[in-house]
Amino acid sequence: MSWADTVRFAARSVLRRPGRAALTVVAVALAAALFTAMLTMAATAQGRVLNQLAKGGPLAGIQVAAAAPNPSQAGVDNPTRGAPKPIDQAALDQIARIHGVDVVLPIVTAQALVAWPGHTATDGNGAGPTGSGSVVFDQLVGVDLSRLGDFPVTLSAGRFPTPGSMTEVDVTPVLLARYGITGTRTRSVVGTQIVLGAPRGFRSADGTPVFRSRWTKAVVVGVVTQQAGSGGVLASLALVQADHRWTAGGDPTVDTDANRSPYAGLFVIARGLDAVPSVRAEVEAVGYSTSAPENLIATVERYVHVVEIVLTGIGVIALAIASLGITNALLAAVRERRREIGILKAVGARDRDVLRSFLIEAAVMGALGGLIGTVLGLALARLVAAIVDGYLTSQGLAGVHVSTPYLLGIGTVVGATVLAVVAGTVPARRAARLPAREAVEL
Amino acid sequence: MRSTRTVRLAVASCAVGALLAACGTPRATPTTPPRPSGPPTTYVAVGGSDSVGDGTGDPLLDAWPQQFFRRSLPQAAVLVNAAVPGSTVAAALGDQAPLAASSHATVVTVWLVSADLLGGTPPATYGAELLRLLSALRSGGATTVLVGNVPPLDQLPGYPACRDGAADTGRSLRCPAELPAPATLAATTAAYDQVIAADAARSGSVLVDLHDAVPSSAAHGGAPFLTPSGTDLSTAGSTLVARTFGAALPTAASHTA
């Protein structure tokens, strides 16, 4: 028998009992869908959890504070810091040269009066005479906006400011809460204008301390949750540096709390999670306190891996059960087609031709079921993700993003096909060994 | 001597800013700040209590320089409010002018009248010191300087209210025991306005004519924007001053071009 004859024989077998074939394919498809959906959701959940731990930044990110390290807390994820210690350009360059460091990103903060026309502070800490008014004390956080993907920053509404912009900012839900703006109302602030004032301490001619501010106008273009620095307003490095220079240039006897460190902190990205411990140790040797969720991430990764193994096991069991359906369907086919097989053998078909025909039938059902199941599974995962995303964003939290796991899809289709072929081996062998005489006599 | 004392008492009862504010509700026309063109604008406000925002509901936001900055200057502009409560022109020369210079100001507003009037500075002395201040701020013509004059104190609501007897009207104005005659007050105001106009012309600064911009109290009947004490600019009064300075700005820009 040629390959074409074999395939034709297999196709005829499938078409003769289309209902049974369809049910078999559906069984495989459902199992494959379950397998794909569970693993996709597990991967998405893992990404979400790790992203949450890294605050939206890279997993190998290390926060360097403008403070000396605490020797008793080496290796702790979030150690208590030592005495304040300014970070200057020389320190930044020294840290950038450490082996295992991929990039060092500076963070600048500046004290700020945030004036929001039309809004009133509700937390009782406004800068007005009775703790009210439209002006509150807060901090600006300045980062290189062209590298936002490397910072622990998550956008929940609007967009990020344009890199280098002196007139665009993002605000955090914490700042908005001070004005009584929470939940879905946070989105409404996008497009509004605020005024930012950097205070500077002076001593007047008669010795009286005076504060004068440097005011700038800014449009709120987005709402973000950020852990890059302590502050409710995220802006470009240039904007915050200008305000920082103004405040730091004041009379130190008047504004004793002014942050005079050129950089409030650094965000160091190591070359992979494995490099994080050694890089942290080196940075602390330079003289600065570091923090990174490395231990937490390792623990969570272990737990998530266990969950993945369990889910994979469930999916494989489902596929195995579906394969039994293939075995059952093919055994029934062998029983029904004994005469046909006998005739084939009588006219010269070999055992391997019959074997091949049944294996092709099994493979086709497995591949078809796997393909349909993979598509169904991905669709199901996206549907669940969309529901979760809707809930999270309605709560003012960052949403989830499902990527298409092509490798998983291909693996599921191939796996379902292989399992089907394995499941079809017993009935195919039985059909192949059927003596021609016995088959014709029936 | 009597004349000077009388003027002092008059000014105490009818603070310049508050009286300005009493002159009518500003039109609620929304203004759009002009789009940035050329180098960023650095604006420095030189002034006293009125420029700090004393008396407004939210001083940091409602002070007239802050309103002028938000309404009339480009989005990328920077404001440094150098004003010090109670500052005289002489004090501003030593304290506020250096800050304007170190900030590389491109636009400066000067409204420094109250403390000198209250302190009884003679118009000639005031004029000489103001000229020095304006010349220093102009930086050889590189900086646009807008200088405000004195409103017609005798025509503003506080003054006639005190003359008619604040107790009778039920208002809490702090009226002095002795008020100058309207003619005396008008003469002092006119003398100040005269030297301010002359100094503006000599230094190349732009005169912001608050005297003409402020409508008479008779036309507006009462002082809806006075603070309860009658000594400070209210929020609405600050808005009126900011708008008047804002209206003068295009002239200033063309002046320095």
Low-confidence stretches of chain A: none
> How much β-strand is present in the residues of chain A?
15-25%
Using the alpha-carbon principal axes, give the shape of chain B: globular
The number of helical runs of chain A is 11
The CATH homology group name of chain B: SGNH hydrolase
- What is the total number of structural domains of chain B? 1
Q: Output the structural class of chain A.
A: alpha+beta
User: How large a portion of the residues of chain B is in β-strands, by DSSP E?
Assistant: 5-15%
Total E-strand runs of chain B? 5
Oligomer: heterodimer
Radius of gyration of chain A: 33 Å
CATH topology description of chain B = Rossmann fold
Overall mean pLDDT of chain B stands at: 75
- What spatial order of strands do you see in the largest sheet of chain B? 2-1-3-4-5
Largest sheet of chain B: 5 strands, parallel
Which descriptors would you attach to this protein?
heterodimer; A: 442 residues; alpha+beta; 2 domains; six-stranded mixed β-barrel; 11 helices; 49% helix; elongated; B: 257 residues; alpha/beta; Rossmann fold; five-stranded parallel β-sheet; 14 helices; 5 strands; 52% helix; 9% strand; globular
Description of the structure:
The complex is a heterodimer of chains A (about 450) and B (about 260). With about 450 residues, chain A is α+β, with helices and mostly antiparallel strands. Chain A has two domains: about 5-55 and about 300-440, no CATH class; about 60-290, no CATH class. Chain A is built from eleven helices and ten strands. In chain A, a hairpin with a 5-residue loop joins strand 6 and strand 7 (about 210-225). The radius of gyration of chain A is 33 Å and the shape is elongated. By secondary structure, chain B is an alpha/beta fold. Chain B has one domain: 3-Layer(aba) Sandwich (Rossmann fold), CATH 3.40.50. Chain B contains 14 helices and five strands. Chain B has helices at about 1-15, 15-20, 50, 60, 65-70, 90-100, 115-120, 125-140, 160-165, 165-170, 180-205, 210-215, 215-220, 235-255; strands at about 40-45, 80, 105-110, 145-150, 205-210. A five-stranded parallel sheet of chain B has the order 2-1-3-4-5, with helices on both faces. In chain B, helix 6 packs parallel to helix 8 and helix 8 (about 125-140) runs parallel beside helix 11 (about 180-205). The N and C termini of chain B lie far apart (about 45 Å). At the A-B interface, strand 6 and strand 7 of A face helix 4, helix 5, strand 2 and helix 6 of B. Strand 7 of chain A pairs antiparallel with strand 2 (about 80) of chain B, so a sheet runs across the interface.
